[in-house]
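Section 3.1: Structural characterization of target chains.
Under the original work plan, the team committed to producing a structural model for every single-chain target entering the pipeline before any wet-lab resources were allocated. The record below documents one such target. The sequence was received from the expression subgroup and is listed exactly as submitted; it comprises 278 residues.
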Amino acid sequence: MAMRLRRRRLRAFAPHAIGDDAQTYGGRRRGVIRFLPNLFTLAALFAGFFAIVQAMNQRFELAAIGIFAAMLLDGMDGRVARLTNTTSVFGEQLDSLSDMISFGAAPALVMYEWILHDLGRVGWAAAFVYCACAALRLARFNANIGIVDKRFFQGLPSPAAAALIAGFIWLVIDNKLHIKDSVMPWVAVGLTLYAGLTMVSSAPFYSGKSFHLGRSVPFWVMVVTIIGFFLIVLDPPIVLFLLFCLYALSGYVYWLWRWWTGRPNPAKPMPPPQTPAP
């Protein structure tokens, strides 16, 4: 009884105290939710930086795994932002800067430290071409937001290009292939140049943005997903590298099929509609 009287007196003297505390708590909670997508972006940036450090320490398998981790984290930050309705211009700029480090500089430096340095100028030139193409691809992507079909990427997305490089390194190291052979460095040069130049091409690559988690998923999609996880668990280096090889070729195949059937390129930027003058 005494406790009840004490609470009533406190409410009488400070009627808005409880409401202020709730409002402050709610504001802090909204602030944490707004920063949540940026945490995933910073985690992806850390994974890319981790890959560079491991390459400097000659731990190339860990460097490749770090690039794959950055790719997974980068794919989550945008979805978290859309689910929590916390998209912002700051987050978009931070994501672009993180992508340049994790999927532009990190793969180029890891590949150079691993095998391209054996070719001298040709090796570092190939690494620079990849890094420069990643920067151009990200700049073009930011400039074309809103004027390109969201279902397709114009050129190979930088996370997929980085996964192609990292998958090749992981595959060779895990299977103990001879990287000092005369052919292997040139294969690495060709793959690096292909990944870099494909990023700045106009080939349409499926983006997957038309897939929404809120909608009902067909049963066959679930079955394919389970089979995919099973195959990846069996041998991650081989399966991941083959999957990203297929994806890196799919854009050119689809582009050629569209050209053969006389259809336009869906990834070509379209001018914004002009509103008629009043």
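The chain has nine helices and two strands.
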